[in-house]
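Example record used in the benchmark description.
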Amino acid sequence: MRHLPNDLNDTIERALQLSCGVPGFLGDSEARFLALLAAAAPAEGCIMEIGSYKGKSTALLASVAARYSLEPVVAIDPHTGPSVTDPQVAGASSFDEFVEGIRAAKLEKHVEIHRAFSRDVAKGWNRPIRLLWIDGDHTYQGTSEDFTLFSPFLAKGAIVAMHDALHAYEGPIRVFVELILRSNQFGPAGFVQSVAWGQFRPDNGAKFHRERERLARRAERLIPFVKDSRPLHGLKKMRYKLARSRVPRAPISAEKWFALVSVGSTE
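Model output (structure tokens):
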């Protein structure tokens, strides 16, 4: 993609409308940004989502995929609960509600459902990925496994995005700092609210080293507070919030973001 779609704003609004009635934990600014990533990631391949829950982000991504004739969204989730980092997600499986939500939005043909753990899907995976959205197991082991299993399939220019990187979970923030911000395989990177993102640029990622390192120095200060994803309380919580306030995370315009990641800048 060499330019932003002319109807991008309308497409994002439509995606937000389709997903707003679906249960989930995605904020408005995060949802808008995720829709932008789906629409304008400058790479070939599929959109992969690890962690679907009841389908809020799935519906958002699939709506964008449908509008721009992209490959179906690969939605991976065993739909079991609770998990270590989501103890509030208890009781029955989320699978039936997930399927009902996708059907209600009339997006079934734009979603490739994998009711399985990501490690099991990875065993037979061989397709390129243009957007890797990681929002599953938020432990360090779980997040790093998701990234390690599927990052070899990233197309040049692809985007990796992780949810809850600025919430009190060890996995997303640590993996983002250690495996993306500290890697010359990646170029532009940043945060939008609690979404951490980076662009896979194996040919020229090194030229973004200074910007990534500057961000890494701020972000890594959060890691000692979130070891083992334990809840924060009292003074420790206050200190965490102070450190987090120093990490830039404001929304970015579509035009400014696309200028950072456009195909022309990767050559």
